[in-house]
Recover the amino acids of this structure.
């Protein structure tokens, strides 16, 4: 049998063969995931959404390196990576690069072949000539592993193949000298990939409208004398209310106004402006808080902002997901008897074209607070997750990836509670310590509490002083972080980037980051541009995470 045109086939162990058998063969014609839009607000926006989703370039996913004692294997399929790891292969830290698994205009397919059906040798090639020649010699074509970019471009680097006569490796061009010094020789370029591809999204607090936070609206009238004002406290601290100056003299509150002005987020025009701001900075998604009123049996609290998002003309330029916030107080708990109604409501959002997906194509449902799901036990949280999965499967034909917030829930119990992975939005102990320095010090240790697959987060700030006295009448109970700064935030973003770079976690959401928050104005979690600082938070994110 002839030697392959461009290089040496990789010799890997039977463990890889078992992993491939578990995960299934690579699909040579991998289609874009099918979706079903069941609750589009209008026929016009539904059609526009479908067209935009169809035309949208596929999202790059991690290309992961795994090793055994005798060789190396590479996969862009998170489920294949998980199966290979389960059979004894070792996932190497970080990623080789990022590239799509779906075709796009000009895409260069990267093929995977092996000499015989029982062989434990695989060859990855981007050469059609090599591919065809090997097939003609009887090699088994396992299809297209992923798609390469055909030419250099912004943030793209060349993916190269190397060999030392015993094994074969993939690496980016900047690694060439290192590998040559280690005894490898260049075995040919393959194509271009992203060196980094972070999917960062912001938590969206959709209560800045007449149907939003009833307590703030009522207390604003009581304390400040203004009716139907959902910006009470925020607006007043900026204007110099004595509640601010008496308790925190000399504080600059001029940042407490969005760049787009005090808005009504039940208006599509508001969401259109915010989507433009977010996507211009490279954000990939909004994570909308979602609340259920168990007395009225409706999600009226944040429904208006989600409806506005669905009607925004540019909604298809950004993905979204909902975070079910079942707080264990008030009317926000979700009894098991209402699981079916809640699941049906949530499924309407999961059916949208631009629902956020994992790297292997599953739609994501976040549970931002699981403590109020039934009695909060893992068994009753699992009952909820199973109910949503069943409803969503019946409505869309798709599997759902359930992520449970680490806040208030032991991340080690997430799988027992029916979740696929934990994620985070804030760091409770750091907030209680009232120190951003403490947050930075413990940030990666906080991530490490969660086993296996995980969605990381970055806390911009926590400052609930504008809540005084409209929500929190005891000034001594107010929490904030006096040492927070933009330099501190930059370090927090660098910390999350470093944690991803050295990660050996499963790859389904390993390059995703939840940002706290877009517009938690009463709690100080705000990366939304403001009048004083402009887009300073977004600029830091774009630079440090190399957002596209």
């Amino acid at each position: 049998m002839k030697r392959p045109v461009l290089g040496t086939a990789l010799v890997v162990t039977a463990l890889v063969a078992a992993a491939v058998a578990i995960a299934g063969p690579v699909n040579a014609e991998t289609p874009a995931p099918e979706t079903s839009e069941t609750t589009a607000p209008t026929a016009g926006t539904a059609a526009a959404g479908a067209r935009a989703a169809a035309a949208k370039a596929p999202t790059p996913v991690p290309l992961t390196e795994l090793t055994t004692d005798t060789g190396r294997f590479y996969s862009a399929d998170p489920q294949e990576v998980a199966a290979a790891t389960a059979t004894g292969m070792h996932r190497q830290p970080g990623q080789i690069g990022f590239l799509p698994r779906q075709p796009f205009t000009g895409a260069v397919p990267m093929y995977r072949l092996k000499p015989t059906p029982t062989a434990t040798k695989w060859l990855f090639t981007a050469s059609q000539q090599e591919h065809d020649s090997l097939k003609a010699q009887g090699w088994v074509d396992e299809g297209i592993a992923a798609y390469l970019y055909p030419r250099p471009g912004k943030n793209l680097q060349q993916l190269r193949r190397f060999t030392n006569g015993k094994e074969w490796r993939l690496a980016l061009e900047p690694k060439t000298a290192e590998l040559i010094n280690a005894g490898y020789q260049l075995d040919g370029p393959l194509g271009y990939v992203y060196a980094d591809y972070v999917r960062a999204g912001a938590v969206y607090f959709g209560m800045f409208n007449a149907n939003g936070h009833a307590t703030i609206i009522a207390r604003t009238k009581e304390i400040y004398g203004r009716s139907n004002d959902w910006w009470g406290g925020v607006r007043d601290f900026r204007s110099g209310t004595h509640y601010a100056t008496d308790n925190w003299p000399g504080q600059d509150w001029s940042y407490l106004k969005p760049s787009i002005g005090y808005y009504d987020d039940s208006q599509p025009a508001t969401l259109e402006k915010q989507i433009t701001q977010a996507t211009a900075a490279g954000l990939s998604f909004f994570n909308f808080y979602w609340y259920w009123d168990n007395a009225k049996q409706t999600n009226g609290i944040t429904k208006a902002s989600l409806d506005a998002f669905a009607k925004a003309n540019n909604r298809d330029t950004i993905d979204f997901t909902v975070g079910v916030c079942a707080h264990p107080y008030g009317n926000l708990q979700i009894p098991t008897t209402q699981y079916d109604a809640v699941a049906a409501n949530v499924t309407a959002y999961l059916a949208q074209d631009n629902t956020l997906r994992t790297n292997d194509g599953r739609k994501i449902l976040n549970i931002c607070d699981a403590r109020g799901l039934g009695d909060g036990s893992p068994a009753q949280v699992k009952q909820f997750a199973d109910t949503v999965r069943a409803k969503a499967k019946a409505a869309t034909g798709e599997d759902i990836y359930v992520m449970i917030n680490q806040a208030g829930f032991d991340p080690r119990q997430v799988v027992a509670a029916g979740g696929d992975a934990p994620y985070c939005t804030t760091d409770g102990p750091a907030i209680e310590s009232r120190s951003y320095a403490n947050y930075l010090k413990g940030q990666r240790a906080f991530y490490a509490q969660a086993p296996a697959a995980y969605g990381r987060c970055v806390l911009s700030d926590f400052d609930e002083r504008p809540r005084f006295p409209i929500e929190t009448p005891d000034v001594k109970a107010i929490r904030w972080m006096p040492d927070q700064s933009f330099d501190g935030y930059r370090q927090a973003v660098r910390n999350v980037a470093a944690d991803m770079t050295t990660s050996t976690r499963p790859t389904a959401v390993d390059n995703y980051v939840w940002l706290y928050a877009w517009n938690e104005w009463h709690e100080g979690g705000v990366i939304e541009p403001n009048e004083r600082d402009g887009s300073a938070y977004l600029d830091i994110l774009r630079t440090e995470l190399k957002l596209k």
DSSP finds 16 helices and 19 strands in the chain.
